[in-house]
Amino acid sequence: MADINLLDTLPQTKRNLAARAEQKTDADREIAKRFDRNFFDGERKHGYGGYRYDGRWLPVARRMVDHYHLPSNARILDVGCAKGFLMSDFKQVLSEATVRGLDVSVYAKENAHDGMGEFIDIGSAENLPYADNSFDLVVSINSIHNLPLEKCKQSLREIERVSRGHAYITVDAWNTEEEHQRLLDWILTAETYMSVSDWHALFAEVGYTGDSGWFMA
Questions:
Q1: Cβ contacts of residue 127 below 8 Å, gap of 6+?
Q2: 3 state DSSP class of 39
Q3: How far apart are CA 165 and CA 168, in angstroms?
């Protein structure tokens, strides 16, 4: 298990956290947590404010393929795959790969990119509908922290179970109290978030042996 940032090629944006904190309401959070059109393609206060493919995940896919030395016919699962952008880019890098995605959002599946909806299953990460040791790589980017603690723990066990090689997750975390406060100003849908050291303790508790990266606002 290692801490590694495999997303460092993604564009960095400046966030107005104070404004976001002031604008968020409990009603906004409830709308966002439906993960429907409002979350992906509605107003910015409810989620992405327009979730469109722009190619930014292609360098990430290349980085992961190289880092994990994936074979040309690798089996890859994206847990919390949204509209399948990363899935599609994995196929660009490894045309013979088998990609699969899982997401709670019917809207995301029905509006998936590049025909990926065919390969997206509707479900939640704490109950993955796949056999043991099914995938060479399982990824979950800023997704499982949207589950309450016990379901988040189970999702880590499930990721471990279906992976026969490698796993990589990113979750909301902090190292300092300043980072903690910035995260509290930022989060909209996350239900499980903690310090990096507490995440490591949780990984040990549930037996997660994959790699991890952190989202810090």
A1: 154, 158
A2: helix
A3: 11
Whether residue 96 contacts residue 73, with contact meaning beta carbons closer than 8 Å, is answered with yes
pLDDT tens digits along 91-138 = 999 999 999 999 999 999 999 999 999 999 999 999 999 999 999 999
3 domain residue, yes or no: no
Question: What is the per-residue burial (b if ≥16 Cβ within 10 Å, else e) of 72-93?
Answer: eebbbbbbbbbbbbbbbbbbeb
- Number of domains, the chain: 1
pTM above 0.90, yes or no: yes
Q: What is the CATH number of the domain that holds 93?
A: 3.40.50.150
Chain-centre distance of CA 144, in angstroms? Answer: 7
Write out the residue range of the structural domain in which residue 94 sits.
17-215
Asked if the structure places residue 56 within a domain, the reply is: yes
